[in-house]
Structure to design on (478 residues):
């Protein structure tokens, strides 16, 4: 199939890469070219600049917010704080948000924001000033609001920034009942939700567990089924990488390698996450960690060590034509957005290996953001209405079963059965169900069409079809 004009012009860019993946998958759908063009394009690209006072002078900050698709409202996606941010990157990330939300049935369009700064070079007061001013600029152009566009954390931002955004929005919209739904990833004490911080990493770990649990697929790549003992290398120890390691280890995998920008460490017997973390906190580097058997000053060498599963959890464009030949993993789980270029992905798939694609693999974050948004709109924490009711019902049931059967449960067994679900348990259950269902939905699409070469293509087919239905329901396309 011919490439879209947009993709042809953007061949070497990140957005171009996403369009290339899209166009490859579009051939397996039967939608009108005009509709495909509408789905693929970025609807609104807002680029702005604002000055801040710094030291004795001023600095002009470059910023963006891109709303890729309005087939559903609000649009949704994080704000990246990074010196490397540019318009193409924000467009690519916004478009990935659209496909991601569609795959996991989160009813949002895709968006993304970018602020071109290295947060490490700014004081907390300066960061607050920049974040609040960024929010005001979004408010001025109607680019933020609980029913319009809802930001969240991304690379370089977190709960603190989200609470500044919420506070600024609320201050500028007095009396707006749903104002706190204008942003997600807020601290728990400021109307956030339990489990959001861990959500992306937990989702990545669940997606990997789901993939490796299928014996038939593992046999095909020369691995045994199950996570137990699987050797994993993780690139990036930020929020996503950290929690991915934590849950993978809990599920039985062995973290054998960790890569950060200053270098990489490896030990075939396993690395203890918290020990590495504490070492890095104390020394500023993962290098020099006593539990490592090997270390590499060149971080990318870390990706090329012996392992079963490689988890890029840092930035885009990490696995390219230049290093794919040296990657030993049989599975790449894309915890980051866009870590594998189309050429590298094609070469890896050609070998018969598996890529768990970003747009599904890291969708746990936005899934729990959706739960947070629902909590903010309903103004009640999950479980508040029914926890005690459930406990009373379970209590009565246990008593009846005990007296009818003569069996007496011990205190721990009684507690386990009677206990009603907390917000965290409900969030984790919703997240797990979403990740498991979506994996099988994508895999089914792939299995049902032998021409569909990868889970990524299947994921794109799934989301293109869902977005197309939304446009048709809006009466825009026949
Ligand atoms: N920045 C995250 C992502 O890329 C989270 C987005 C959100 O929660 O809206 O998926």
């Amino acid at each position: 199939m011919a490439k879209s004009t947009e993709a042809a012009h953007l061949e070497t860019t990140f957005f171009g890469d996403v369009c290339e993946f899209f166009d490859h998958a579009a051939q397996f759908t039967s939608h009108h070219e005009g509709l495909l063009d509408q789905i693929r394009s970025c609807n609104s690209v807002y680029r702005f600049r604002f000055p801040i006072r710094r030291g004795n002078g001023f600095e002009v900050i470059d910023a963006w917010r891109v709303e890729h698709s309005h087939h559903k409202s609000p649009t949704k996606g994080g704000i990246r704080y990074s010196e490397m941010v540019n318009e193409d990157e924000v467009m690519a990330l916004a478009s990935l948000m659209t496909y991601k939300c569609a795959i996991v049935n989160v009813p949002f369009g895709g968006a993304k924001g970018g602020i071109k700064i290295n947060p490490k070079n700014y004081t907390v007061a300066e960061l607050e000033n920049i974040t609040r001013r960024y929010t005001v600029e979004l408010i001025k152009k109607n680019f933020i609001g609980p029913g319009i566009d809802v930001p969240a954390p991304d690379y370089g931002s977190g709960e603190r920034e989200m609470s500044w955004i919420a506070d600024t929005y609320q201050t500028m919209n007095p009396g707006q009942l749903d104002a706190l739904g204008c942003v997600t990833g807020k601290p728990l004490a400021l109307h956030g939700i339990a489990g959001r911080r861990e959500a992306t990493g937990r989702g990545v770990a669940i997606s990997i567990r789901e993939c490796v649990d299928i014996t038939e697929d593992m046999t095909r790549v020369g691995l045994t089924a199950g996570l137990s003992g699987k050797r994993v290398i993780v690139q990036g120890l930020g929020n996503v990488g950290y929690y991915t390691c934590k849950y993978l280890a809990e599920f039985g995998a062995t973290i054998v390698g960790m890569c950060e920008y200053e270098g990489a460490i490896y030990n075939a017997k396993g690395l203890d996450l918290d020990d590495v973390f504490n070492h890095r906190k104390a020394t500023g580097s993962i290098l020099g960690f006593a539990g490592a058997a090997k270390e590499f000053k060149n971080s990318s060498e870390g990706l090329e060590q012996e392992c079963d599963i490689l988890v890029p959890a840092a930035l885009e464009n990490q696995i390219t034509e230049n290093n794919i030949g040296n990657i030993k993993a049989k599975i790449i789980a894309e915890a980051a957005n866009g870590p594998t270029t189309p050429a590298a992905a094609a070469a890896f798939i050609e070998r018969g290996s598996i890529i768990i694609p970003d747009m599904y693999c890291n969708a746990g974050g936005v899934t729990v953001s959706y739960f947070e948004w629902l909590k903010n709109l309903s103004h009640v924490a999950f479980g508040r209405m029914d926890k005690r009711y459930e406990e009373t019902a379970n209590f009565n049931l246990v008593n009846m079963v005990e007296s009818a059967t003569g069996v007496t449960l011990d205190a721990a067994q009684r507690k386990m059965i009677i206990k009603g679900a907390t917000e965290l348990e409900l969030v984790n259950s919703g997240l797990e169900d979403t990740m498991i269902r979506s994996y099988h939905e994508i895999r089914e699409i792939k299995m049902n069409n032998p021409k569909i070469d990868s889970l990524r293509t299947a994921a794109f087919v799934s989301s293109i079809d869902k977005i197309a239905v939304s446009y048709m329901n809006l009466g825009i396309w026949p």
About this structure: The first helix runs from residue 5 to 9.
